[in-house]
Amino acid sequence: MRRACLRVTGRSEGGPGVRRARLRVTEKSGAEGTRRSFSSEEATQKDQALPNPSWSKEIRLLFDQFMKKCEDGTWKRFPSHHSRLPRVYCGSMSTKEELMSQARLFTRSFEEGLGFEYVMFYNEDEKRVVCLFQGGPYLQGGPGFLHGGAMATLIDATLFMNAQLAGGIVMTANLNINFKRAPSSTATSYQEAIP
Amino acid sequence: MRRGFQVAARLGHHRAPPGAPCIPPSLHPVSAFGFSTDTLVTRFCSEKTDKKDYALPNASWCPDMLSMYQEFLEKTKTSSWVKIPSFKSNRDHIQGLKLPLGLAVTSDKNDWRLFTRCIEMEGQGYEYVIFFHPSKKKSVCLFQPGPYLEGPPGFAHGGSLAAMMDETFSKTAYLAGIGLFTLSLNIRFKNLIPVGSLAVLNVEVEKIEDQKIYISCITQSRDQQIVYAKSSGVFLQLQLEEESSQ
């Protein structure tokens, strides 16, 4: 197993503070979004922060370890959906409304196994968020490597969750990333955001 | 001892000719690794390809993006700007070349996609085109985020802009001096980009020094009245090798 160290500093507008993240990379040996229409009858949203057939052994193992930690209530799992609330439009929609009705959270815009496969756990007492992440083939940068921007996206998402826990509604003001090693595009990685 | 990019840098150094003169921290027209910017651009923008170019207008492009695209297309005829093609994978961009030994990742899979071309449906994900000026080592990226890139409701995810910046940096750094891997990325977000609207990324190479390319970007609205973000990045220069013919 290769080890890599990633130091991330982030500052949220909800309050001062520096968030640090450490990254450990393990190697994994190993569809296109369709339009969906939302209506009040089809408001079921699948929680995507759960194992599916595309998950490797490594990420499943880490998931099981953290689910065990959730049994005594010190850690909790963040559920995650591809959109927030169903958007209901009456009558004919303008082009912009039609565009917005198809909106999806960026990190959940991919079919199973093709993009971001991830789950976040948080510990409120320690103010820590841990993200288990497996990149898919649609996140490529250099041939065979994970795109730096895909990594930046997940780092931003993890830090955002941590900042939100601390300070309510927040937005990223500053994101600073020093890359130490390029993970392969299907590697499993472990990110931790701590205050 | 830290490995990773330090090993890659040493690999690159092995290939530098012995006794090579010290390159001043300025924009050198010929990279230390033998390919001039003009050669890289010619090779990169070769018309002899059957690969689909995604950096072309389609029905989802907003009027601002279309008209600015036309403006820059005119500049490609009159003032040395070059439109960079955009394929589904970076493998297609470096056909005939390969990463140095020890860095290349081999695989028989062919379902890989460049992250910023991950969503093929017109208008749903990344719509963008990059224009590059070889002698000034500047780029302009016209970027329109679609609804699948959402973060805050109605606005583009900060990560999607980070990826667009990293991608534009990556192409610019490659053409300016075979900058291949991101060493660092610093982004200061100022305002949110509405989904479906045009953001213009103005990118400039600041200097090339010690096997690193320093590059910066301002992302603004077309009229430059709204600054969406400012960023800077550092890329590692490496030498690509010619693939041996079979």
TrEMBL record, chain A:
Pfam families: 4HBT
Enzyme nomenclature, EC number: 3.1.2.2
Record flagged with keyword Lipid metabolism: yes
Record localization: Cell projection, Ruffle membrane; Cytoplasm; Mitochondrion inner membrane; Mitochondrion intermembrane space
Domain of life: Eukaryota
Membrane topology, record value: Peripheral membrane protein
Recorded family membership: Belongs to the THEM4/THEM5 thioesterase family.
Protein name per UniProt: Acyl-coenzyme A thioesterase THEM4
Organism in which the protein naturally occurs: Orycteropus afer afer
Taxonomic placement: Eukaryota, Metazoa, Chordata, Craniata, Vertebrata
UniProtKB/TrEMBL annotation, chain B:
Taxon lineage: Eukaryota, Metazoa, Chordata, Craniata, Vertebrata
Signal sequence extent: none
Taxonomic superkingdom: Eukaryota
Organism: Orycteropus afer afer
Domain Thioesterase: 154-217
One annotated GO molecular function: long-chain fatty acyl-CoA hydrolase activity
UniProt gene name: THEM5
GO CC annotations on file: mitochondrial matrix
Protein name per the record: Acyl-coenzyme A thioesterase THEM5
Any Pfam family the entry gives: 4HBT
Biological process (GO), any one: cardiolipin acyl-chain remodeling
